From TrEMBL, chain A:
Pfam families: COX1. The keyword Cell membrane applies. GO terms for cellular component: plasma membrane; respiratory chain complex. This is Quinol oxidase subunit 1. Its EC number is 1.10.3.-. The keyword DNA-binding does not apply. The gene is qoxB. Its cofactor is ferriheme a; Cu cation. It comes from Peribacillus asahii.
UniProtKB/TrEMBL annotation, chain B:
Its EC number is 1.10.3.-. This is Quinol oxidase subunit 3. It catalyses: 2 a quinol + O2 = 2 a quinone + 2 H2O. It comes from Peribacillus asahii. GO terms for molecular function: cytochrome-c oxidase activity; oxidoreductase activity.
Length: 649, 200
């Protein structure tokens, strides 16, 4: 048994044992269910081997919802622990593990795949393409993300969770202070998912630059496509920095190198700098597509075109540039000179300008519009004031002298949740509701969706606004408990109630999905929202080839013009369509990455070498493979189009 | 597959053009990767702890040999692509084989260089400087090693399948990769070795 001792969890608790049992039961149920309903072949041939951007996007969506659940449970545990003074629900070690997992999962394994889901599903449709530039690479991206997420998630039952915060600062993250394998999981799981993200960036830059429908110039692209393009560029510049930082961190932990060590010339601040040189642009990688989603929803439900298209594009590009010049504001208190801090204060505050332009553009889009208060629109309308409050507190934090008061307090926690939840979380929830008929062919129930929205918005406000006050009163973040005399008790209890409201909202969202699967009418037509851009010009759900005929574009809102100005989108006749073939190799290779990562976490070198060779064999297989794809014949297209309701021809 | 005959073979289909653009974007990411390594190197170069400095361990001969071999290989692969465009399969293959042999020679010298450093007491664990030095050089060396196998696969495919739009595309993209490794090496040679040897 000595060999297996290293897989034991160093700080077990009843909750972890319960999770172990729950995981075993779930895995058993999934295997049993797939076998009983004879779905293995369906799963393999329709999903695991797919290279279809819509199916890959759907898998991102499902994975993101699962991770939202996991990260949300972590959040509830934290709020429950701090609900009353001197609480004994979690001890300090568990609290460390929970907030570390919460941060990593919410940013890297929930928000990122959720954004990727929309990029995958929407961008090719918005630009009138049949798929992305590299469909096979797209599958590799997804499966690498998925395996990275799985690797990270097994840490808490095998070997121990990371416990050095989602920023994993050195020297805390070094072997001396974080002796469990938890931080190994952090370094390697994020690395694997990050490689997938980098490939997504390459894929979408190429797709957007080269695969737009005829007539769609750059300045006619829909806002969401613009945001996906800018985000992809940020990914290309930011993620390699993370790759190197994680490589160095991994080597420090596995091979005792001295990059961030306390001795032999090591420099712990190098980690903080590299992490945030990636980390700050990462924030914009998430928020820009979120802005893009709002920029699609607001015009649709105001029945007006977006106000200030050019300024929207320019502000987005400017934000992407600035995002690389502000990273030091994450550690104003960590030893730079006042001169350096001042420069980064100014660059940080300047970002409020292009963001403010966007806020005004959304407001002016709604101005005199005929607003329909659907669920996606409610999220978008609530986003504007809430996000603005988060932005204003961001400018407060940007003042480096004042930051000495706010740094590492709950004020900061309130600030970044105040931008991420109304910004990113509202956007992806709005986007899910908005694009649900596009993906699945039926609408989500509006009534339950509105209940979920109100619970989320009120819950969010109750949970996070009190933190501004406790933060200013000096409550430090990441403290697992506080004394009664501190006086933080009442406001923390309010936060807990807010968190419970948010949990109810999650339950309602799941219930909406369940209810709508059971009761929503099918056949909603191609355009249930009376929308404006090209993704609505095809059927719901979208056929494999997206568009039977590639649309021709001569304005910013070609679909709107087709509906109301008699513009002809689809000219010419059906031709046979070339499509890429499915492949199981991306899944197998990513699974080998999982094994490789797991082997590295536990320093099992033989297994690591074997799985690495396996990865190279997969790459070699791809090099030698001859794959011309396949054609969909004109007869098949006609058949599908008639079956789908024959929007055109 | 529509083939456009007014273009060189490697650009002749839409997928080929996508592949080349995508690879340029990938090289952009690679520039950031090595840029991060160089930045970290400059940050840690004087943080030698009790270990040796660059000036104490660097030797000019192996470094010059590595430079000579890699730069020549970059020139030779250029000849290979030229031969490919002329449709001369045999000449192309010969140049590609020479390229890879020169790459192997480079790797041989680099491994030997690492062994020497190791025996002089500069290991991966000695100091922040040596950790960074080995990681920067090692990342480049790993790229060359990977490139060796990639090039080998392409040689086999060209030998078996001839110069087609698909194989020409792969060969051209591989040549971009190989030239890129050369560019990185020029920076390594200048800012790690030359600068390190002349540092006082």
């Amino acid at each position: 048994m000595g060999y297996f001792a290293k897989f034991a969890v160093p700080h077990p608790s009843p909750a972890i044992y319960a999770s172990m049992i729950a995981i075993v039961v779930t895995v058993f149920l999934i295997i049993f269910g797939l076998t009983y309903f004879k779905k293995w072949i369906y799963l393999w041939s329709e999903w695991i081997t797919t290279v279809d951007h819509k199916k890959i996007g759907t898998m991102y969506l499902i994975a993101a919802l699962l991770m939202l659940f996991r990260g949300g449970v972590d959040a509830l545990m934290m709020r429950a622990q701090t609900a009353v003074p001197d609480n004994k629900l979690l001890d300090s070690q568990h609290y460390n593990e929970v907030f570390s997992a919460h941060g990593v999962i919410m940013i890297i394994f929930m928000a990122m795949p959720y954004i990727m889901a929309f990029m995958n599903i929407v961008v090719p449709l918005q630009i009138g393409a049949r798929d992305v530039a590299f469909p096979r690479l797209n599958a590799v991206s997804f499966w690498l993300f998925f395996m990275g997420a799985m690797l990270f998630n097994i840490s808490f039952v095998i070997g121990g969770s990371p416990d050095a915060g989602w920023t994993s600062y050195f020297p805390l993250a070094d072997n001396e202070f974080s002796p469990s394998v938890g931080t190994n999981y952090y370094m390697i799981a994020i690395q694997i998912a990050g490689i997938g993200t980098l490939m997504t960036g390459i894929n979408f830059i190429t797709t957007i630059l080269r695969m737009r429908a005829p007539g769609m110039t750059l300045m006619r692209m829909p806002m969401f496509t613009w945001s996906a393009f800018v985000t992809s560029i940020i990914i290309i510049f930011a993620f390699p920095v993370l790759t190197i930082a994680l490589l160095m961190g991994t080597m420090d932990r596995l091979f005792e190198t001295k990059f961030f060590a306390m001795t032999d010339g090591g420099m712990d601040m190098l980690w903080a700098n590299l992490f945030w040189v990636w980390g700050h642009p990462e924030v914009y990688i998430l928020i820009l597509p979120a802005f893009g989603i709002f920029s699609e929803i607001i015009p649709t439900f105001s029945r007006r075109n977006i106000y200030g298209y050019k300024s929207m594009v320019i502000s987005m590009v400017v934000i992407s540039l600035y995002s690389f010049f502000v990273w030091t504001h994450h550690f104003f208190t960590m030893g730079q000179t006042a001169y350096v801090n001042s420069i980064f204060s100014i660059t940080t505050m300047v970002i409020a300008v292009p963001t403010g332009i966007k806020i005004f553009n959304w407001l002016l889009t709604m101005w005199k519009g005929r607003i329909r208060f659907t669920v996606p629109m409610l999220y978008s309308i609530a986003f504007i004031p809430l996000f603005t409050i988060g932005g204003v507190t961001g400018v407060m934090l940007a003042m480096s002298a004042a930051d000495y008061q706010y740094h590492n307090t709950m004020f900061l926690v309130a600030h970044f949740h105040n931008v991420i939840i109304p910004g990113v979380a509202f956007a992806v929830l709005a986007g899910s509701t908005y694009y649900w008929p596009k993906i699945f062919g039926f609408m989500l129930n509006e009534r339950i969706g509105k209940w979920a929205f109100w619970f989320l918005t009120i819950g969010f406000s109750l949970a996070f606004f009190p933190m501004y006050i406790t933060g200013l009163d000096g409550q430090a973040r990441r403290m697992y408990t506080y004394s009664e005399a501190s006086g933080y008790g009442l406001l923390n209890f309010v936060s807990f109630i807010g968190a419970a409201f948010m949990a109810i909202s999650f339950v309602l969202i799941v219930y909406t999905i369940y209810y709508s699967i059971r009761h929503s009418p099918r056949h909603v037509g191609g355009d249930p929202w009376d929308a404006r851009s090209l993704e609505w010009a095809t059927h719901n759900p979208v056929p494999e080839y997206n568009f039977a005929i590639i649309p021709q574009v001569d304005s910013r809102e070609p679909f709107w013009d087709a509906k109301y100005k008699r513009y002809e989108l689809f000219k010419g006749d059906y031709k046979k369509i070339h499509m890429p073939n499915n492949s199981g190799v991306p899944f197998i290779m990513s699974a080998l990455f999982f094994v490789f990562g797991f082997a590295l976490v536990f320093s099992m070198w033989i297994l690591a070498v074997i799985s690495l060779i396996g990865i190279f064999i997969c790459m070699a297989h791809r090099s030698f493979e001859i794959d011309h794809g396949h054609y969909i014949s004109v007869e098949e297209i006609k058949e599908t189009e008639v079956k789908m309701g024959g929007n055109h021809k | 597959m529509k083939v456009d005959h007014s273009q060189p073979l490697e650009y002749s289909t839409e997928q080929n053009r996508l592949n080349i653009l995508g690879f340029w974007v990938f090289l952009g990411a690679e520039i950031m990767l090595f840029g991060t390594l160089f930045t970290s190197y400059f940050t840690l170069v004087d943080r030698t702890g009790d270990g040796p400095t660059g000036a104490e361990i660097f030797e000019i001969f192996p470094v010059l040999m590595e430079t000579f071999l890699l730069l020549t290989s970059s020139f030779v692969i250029g000849l290979g692509i030229h031969a490919m465009r002329l449709g001369k399969k045999k000449a192309m293959l010969t140049f590609f084989v020479i390229t890879l042999l020169l790459g192997l020679g480079f790797l041989g010298f680099e491994i030997d260089e690492f062994m020497v450093y190791y025996h002089e007491g500069a290991t991966l664990q000695t100091s922040a400087f040596t950790s960074m030095l080995f990681t920067t050089l090692g990342t480049h060396g790993a790229h060359v090693t990977l490139g060796f196998f990639w090039g080998l696969f392409i040689i086999i495919q060209v030998a078996k399948r001839g110069i087609t739009p698909a194989t020409a595309n792969k060969s051209f993209i591989f040549s971009l990769y190989w030239h890129f490794l050369d560019v990185v090496w020029i920076f390594i040679f200048t800012f790690i070795y030359l600068e390190g040897m002349t540092r006082v």
